[in-house]
């Protein structure tokens, strides 16, 4: 069928086609639909849209002319619909990627009240007590000291939108960081003016869980996995040894076996291997 051409019912129903005949006799006629004019438009991506006029009496050429005139507007509407669906899919995939990377954001007004946030942050509120939605939708850290620091920071952003962003550590096990920055550009959909945006990044697993996963993933011994996780955070091997109660010599021997099993040629590459493995999206 030609795109943009108006077709009559007789042109759409094939006399010898039982499916077409059943559609006419079982669906259309019982509902008093005896005549129809239809036009099809196509979007460049291949999506089709149909516009039809159906009635219980003969439909004349004036309806065909009207459908022809409306076809151009239908193309525009179809193009907008496809564009919106494409953006909706991109937004969904981006949101899923943020969730898998344990990353999210939320916007705050001058009183530290939450205006908007990603679904991942809402899940974080349910999973941990490090942050919560307090009274009047206020973002409330578990630590009173951190709460005071965040409140002062947001007030500063309200009067100085060019102030420097600040990174705050919420927890070390499991690790969770928050970068708070001034908000530049608001939203017509927001009920209150956002003055700051907080980016949250963290690990939903504890250090013990991650060590078990490293054992499974690379065949490390538990003692090797504990050292691998610490030095994968960028901590020098001397400090890592002290953290784990090992001698530096023992830590160096462990590290050689870790590099051999993971294929890393040094600490920098071990960091890359660990942070780009499935642990990053688990």
Secondary-structure blueprint:
Elements: E1 6-8, H1 9-12, H2 18-28, E2 35-42, E3 48-55, H3 61-100, E4 103-108, E5 114-117, H4 119-127, E6 131-133, E7 139-141, H5 144-159, E8 166-172, E9 175-182, E10 196-202, H6 207-218, H7 222-231, H8 237-244, H9 248-262, H10 267-275
Antiparallel strand pairs: 1-2, 2-3, 4-5, 4-10, 6-7, 8-9, 9-10
Helix pairs in contact: 6-7, 7-8, 7-9, 8-9
Task: Describe the protein.
There is one protein chain. By secondary structure, the protein is an alpha+beta fold. It has three domains: 6-96, no CATH class; 101-202, Beta-Lactamase; 207-280, Arc Repressor Mutant, subunit A, CATH 1.10.10. 48% of the residues lie in helices and 20% in strands. The protein is built from ten helices and ten strands. It has helices spanning 9-12, 18-28, 61-100, 119-127, 144-159, 207-218, 222-231, 237-244, 248-262, 267-275, and strands at 6-8, 35-42, 48-55, 103-108, 114-117, 131-133, 139-141, 166-172, 175-182, 196-202. The strands form three sheets. The protein has a five-stranded antiparallel β-sheet. Helix 7 crosses helix 8 (237-244), helix 7 crosses helix 9 (248-262) and helix 8 (237-244) packs across helix 9. The mean pLDDT is 88.
């Amino acid at each position: 069928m030609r795109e943009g051409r108006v077709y009559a019912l007789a042109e759409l129903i094939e006399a010898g086609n039982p499916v077409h005949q059943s559609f006419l006799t079982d669906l259309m006629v019982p509902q008093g639909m005896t005549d129809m004019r239809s036009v099809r438009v196509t979007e460049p991506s291949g999506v089709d849209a149909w516009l039809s006029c159906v009635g219980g009496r003969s439909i004349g050429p004036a309806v065909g002319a009207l459908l022809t005139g409306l076809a151009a507007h239908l193309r525009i509407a179809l193009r907008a619909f496809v564009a919106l669906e494409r953006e909706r899919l991109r937004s969904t995939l981006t949101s899923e990627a943020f969730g898998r990377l344990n990353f999210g954001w939320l916007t705050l007004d001058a009183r530290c009240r939450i205006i908007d946030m990603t679904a991942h942050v809402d899940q974080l509120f349910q999973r941990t007590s490090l942050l919560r939605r307090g009274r009047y939708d206020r973002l409330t850290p578990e630590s009173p000291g951190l709460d005071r620091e965040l409140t002062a920071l947001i007030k500063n952003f309200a009067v100085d939108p060019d102030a420097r962003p600040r990174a705050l550590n919420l927890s070390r096990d499991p690790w969770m960081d928050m970068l708070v920055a001034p908000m530049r550009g608001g939203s017509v959909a927001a009920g209150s003016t956002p003055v700051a945006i907080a980016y949250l990044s963290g690990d939903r697993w504890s250090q013990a869980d991650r060590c078990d996963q490293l054992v499974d993933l690379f065949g490390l011994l538990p003692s090797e996995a504990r050292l691998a996780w610490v030095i994968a955070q960028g901590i020098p091997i001397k400090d890592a040894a002290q953290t784990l109660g090992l001698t530096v010599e023992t830590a160096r021997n462990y590290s050689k076996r870790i590099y051999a099993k993971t294929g890393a040629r040094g600490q920098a590459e071990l960091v890359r291997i660990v942070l780009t493995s499935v642990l990053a999206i688990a």
